[in-house]
Amino acid sequence: MANRFAGFRRFSLRPLVSRSPRSVAGQVFVLQVALVVLLVACGVFALALQSERDTTAEAKRRSVATAETFAHAPGVVAALRTPDPSKILQPATEAARKAAGVDFIVVMNTKGIRYTHPIPSLIGKRFVGTIGPSLAGKVYTESVHGPLGHEVQATVPIKDGTDKVVGLVSAGLKVKNVTSQVDRQLTIIVGAGAGALVVSTGVTALVGRRLRRQTHSLAPDEMTRMYDHHDTVLHSVREGVLIVAGDGRLLLVNDEARRLLELPPDAEGRLVSQLSNLEPEMVELLVSGREATDEVHFAGERLLAVNQRPTGRDGGIEGTVVTLRDSTELQAVTGRAEVARERLKLLYDAGLGVGTTLDVRRTADELARVAVPRFADFVTVDLADAVLHGEEPATTATDLRRIAVCGVRNDHPLYERGRLIDFVPSTPQARGYGSGRSELVTDLSTATGWHAQDPERTKEIIDYGIHSLIAAPIQAGGVVLGVANFWRAKQHEPFDDEELSLAEELVARAAVSIDNARRYTREHALAVTLQRSLLPRALPEQSALDVGYRYLPAQSGVSGDWFDVIPLPGSRVALAVGDVVGHGLHAAATMGRLRTAVHNFSTLDLPPDELLSHLDDLVARIDQDEQDTDGAAGVVGATCLYAIYDPVTRRCVMARAGHLAPALVHPDGTVTFVDVPTGPPLGLGGLPFQTAELDIAEGAQLVLYTDGLIEDRRRDLDVGMELLRDALAGHPDRSPEESCQAVLDELLPGRPKDDVALLIARTRGLASDRIADWDVPLDPAAVAGMRETVSQKLDEWGLSELGFSSELVLSELITNAMRYGSEPIHVRLIRDRTLICEVSDSSSTSPHLRYAATMDEGGRGLFLVSQMAERWGTRYTPQGKVIWAEQALPRITGQPGLGTLSGAP
User: Fold this and answer.
1) pTM exceeds cut of 0.70
2) Residues 713, 665: contact at Cβ < 8 Å?
3) Which residues cross the membrane (predicted)?
C-alpha cells in the first residue's frame, strides 16, 4: 500500500497538461476533467433533490403509518359511537402525536367535522383537506395549507367490523419541519461533492496515463482504422456474438445476434435481465457466467445453439463471450420426425391395447384410454344402442349411448357415461354418422350447428376450456356403429388436418374390434337364449322338496351345464345335474339332448343306475353318429348325477357318472359329502353304475352342483369343496334360495370362467296320516272288503267324491294282481297333491293296455283304469312291481291341509 502511495506522489499532472490538447491523451484528459466536474455538480444537485424527496417521502410514510395505527387502535370505533367522542379521543391523539413525532393527529367523522386537534379551539370545525378517497376506503396523502401552516398530511378511514367507514384519521407534519431536515443534509452533500471532485480529478489523471499505455501511443487515424476492421469482421459473420459484463450488462452485440434475439437498437449497455423479449432460460444462462457448449435454447420461434466462455481468466475484464447459431430448421426436421414417431407409436399401442376382449364396452373404453392424453385431452365414445345388444345400428345418429368417457380431469361438463343421446342433424356427430366421414371443428365457440344440440351444456364446455373437436364415425364393413369424439382443451393447440387423418386411422383400428365384439355379443346372446330355453323355465309343482337353484353362464360363452327337477309317481321327486365339457352351441345342444333323454327315461320310472346306463348307451350312439359326420365333434366328458327322493320313506337313492359327489346339510348345520360310488363319464361304456341309498332326515338340504362352482385355476378341487362346506355349514334354518345366494357370494365373487349350475333341495316328509296301506290275501272274495275299507278311508280324508272311481280302480288293480301276479299283494293310498292308489305284488309281469273285442269277456280292466285316473303306470322294484294310478283331488273349501306335507312352511 505504501508503494502505491509513493507511486501516486511521483505521478505528476504536468506531462498531461503540457501535451497538446490535439493528442488523444490530452483530449481525453480535458474531456474527462470536464465530465468529472459536470458529474460532481450533477451529483450534488441530484443528492440534494434525492435528500429532499426522501425526507418528504419519509414524512408521508410516517404520517400514513401514524394515521393507520391510530385508525386500527382498539377502542377508536367504540369511542366514535359515544355521545362525546372528543372527550375520549383528544387525550389519546395528543399522546399518540408526541410518541410518533408528528405535528398533529386529527380524528373526524365522515362529514369532516373534527373530534380532535392539537389546537383545542379547532375541535368541531371542518377538516382542511380532501376526504372523498378516504370515505371510499382508500389512504390519501396531500400537501395543504392548514391551521398549522403548510402541511403534509395522510388521511385513512376508520372501519367497523362490517368493513363500513365510520370515521377518518389524519396525521401529518408541517413542511417547514421537513425542509429543515433537508437544509441540515445539504451541507454534508456539498462537502461530499467537493471531496468527490478532488478524488475524481486524480482518478482522471490516472486513467489518462493508463490510456496512453493501452493505446500504445497510436494516432487517432490508426485507432479508427483498427476499430473499423474490427466492426467489419464482427458484424459480417453469420454467427451471433455477445459480450456480457460480470454484472450482467450487455457490452457488445453484433448484427447477427441482434437479428437472432430480436434485440432493440439500444440493447447494448442494458442489463440482460431488462431485455423483455428474451426467454427466461436464455436470460438465466447469460447472467450466470457459466460455461456452455452447444446448449439449445429458444428465442421466440427460433432454436439456438449457444456457446459461452468466461473472459476474465488471464486478468482481463470479468464477463463472458457468447456465440449463437440458428438450428431452427434442423430442429424442425427433427421435430417432424419425432411427431411422426409418436403417432406411429400411438397407432402401435392402439393395435395392442384396443380389442383385447370381445366386449363392446371394454373395447370402447380401451380406445378412449389409449388416446388420452397423448392425442386428446378428452375422448368420448358413443355407440348405437342396438350395437350393445349385437344388433344392426340405425342409419341416423339417434339413440346413441355414451359408453366410454376418459379425460385428463374428472370435472368436465361432457355428457356422462351411460347417457342416451339424440344428436340433432346440425352437429358434427350427426353429420359424420350420416356421411361416414370425419368432422373437424377447430373452434367450437363459433360452431353454431354444434351449439344447437344443447346450448346450456355447450356453453359450459366452452367456458371449461374445450375448444376443438374431431368427430370420427366408427364404421366397419360399410356400417356406421357410432362416433368417437376427440376433444382438446386450452392447454393444447386445436386439431389440424394431419391429426384428423390420425384420428381416422385410430378409430378404424378400433372399429374392427368393436364390430367383432358386436357380432360376438349377438352370437353369445343367441347361444345363451338357446341354452336357457333348454333349461327349466320353472320348477314343477311337488311337495317332497323345497328347491332353490342358480344357473350362471360362463363369461367366455355358453356351456353344457344343466339341472332338472322331475316329479315321479308316488310323490317321489328326481333331481338331476349334468355337465357337458366344452363351450359353444354344440355343448348347449348336446346338453339339451341329454336333458330330454333323462326326462324320457324318467317316465319309465327306472332306478338311478339303470337310467344312467341307458343314458350312457345314448351318448355312445351320439358319438358314433357324429364321428360319421365330417367336422363333427363327439360328446367328450359328459357327466351326470341322478337322485330319487321318496318323502314317504324319507330315503334317497342316487348314482353318478363321473360327476362330483353331492353335499348334505344336516338339520344340526353340519355338512358332509355323500359317499356315492363313482361311475365313468357318459359315453365310455363297459362299466356298470352303482347306487347309494341313504336315509335323509326331514329338513336336511341336498346340494347338487357342477364343477364350475368349486374348480378354479387359482385353487385346487379340495380347497373349493372346503369353501363349499364352509358356506353351507352353520345355517340349517336358511332357505334353499338364501343358501344358493350365500354359496355364490362366497365361492364366485366375480364372473365365472365356466358354467355354474347349483341345486339345493330341502327335504320334506309325508305325514303318516296321509298314508294308508293294507296287505290283501290271494282270494277274490277279499276284493269286496278292500273296497269297503278304502271307501271308509276316503270318507275319513273328506274325499267321498272319489269313492266310486277309487273303488273301481282299486278293484281292477287288485284283480289283475291276483290273476297275473303272486303273493304278497299290498295296497297303499297316498293323499298328496293327488290321490295315489298303488297295488304291488312280487311278480315282474308287465300289464299293458289293449282294446277288447265286442264279444271278449275280459281285457277292459286297465282301459277303465286309464279312463278314471289322470295317470297310471308301472314301476319295478327288487321285490316285484307296483301298478299305480293318480286321481285329481276335488276342490273343497274350508278343508285346510289337503295337498301339503308335514314340515311344509
Assistant:
1) no
2) no
3) 28-49, 186-207
